[in-house]
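hey m, so remember when u said the tokens were messed up on ur end? i reran from scratch. heres the input so u can diff it against urs
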Amino acid sequence: MHQARHDISRVQFQMERFIFFSDGVFAICITLLVIEIKVPNPEATHIFSDAALWRYLNKNSLTFLGFLISFGLIGHYWTVHHRIFGYAKNYTSSLLWLNLGFLFSVVLLPFHSGLLAEYGSDTHMFLPYGVYVANMCLVGFMNCWLWIYVSNPRRNLLTHKISAERIRLGLYRSLIVPVVFIISFLISFISPIVSRLLPISIPIVLHWGMKGIERLADVKDKEERLKHEPHENHEHHEHREHNEHHEHHEHNEHHEHNQHHEHNEHHEHSQHHEHNDHHEQHRD
């Protein structure tokens, strides 16, 4: 795929545009998600008392739970997107299109959340929740693909080398959401209520279930940095010696030039003085 032809000095600006656009898409998705929650019309729902309102809220509790889960997961994927591109120093045209594919999967969430909100209260219907789960899996798999692409050291997109354990940790984090939702959908055929509550476990697994792998990744990243520091210091030392040698060479050339210039001036002055003496003697 063709790469952009602009100057390399514009890469940072283009990266900022790239990230700001993605942030805007996430913000719009969350806004659309909130719009799907509608205040009940008293005339249409015949709600004229606290008891009637409570019955309505209780009946739509799964809808509100779905909204909270969708909001939390969109926020989660926004933070993941932020972390992924925190590692990136450059981009390719393929990465642009891959990111658009990921954002496409995200912008579908408000529609499928609305579909679930409309029909999710009927636990005997499996299609609305199945479509919602499919969308969540799509987002998770696209996020996984995005991380694999950026973290691949052969593409030279990373700001610094990261350990294989850090790359695996990112893969595990990306796949947790799809796995939990697939299990949740399978459970929905046995116990719909339990299946809707299961996604609440996602932040618990992400935060506490990955502690051991995260500590290992931190250790390996530290070892990777220490491994490359001597090489970087050696390159810095060679660069400094080269600069010092270059400066010394320039100084010697400047000194030789001055000496040559002084010698020529002295020689010309002597010749001029001798010429004047000869002229005076001839006149005498």
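this time it looks ok to me. The two ends are 92 Å apart (CA to CA). if urs says something different then somethings off w ur setup not the seq
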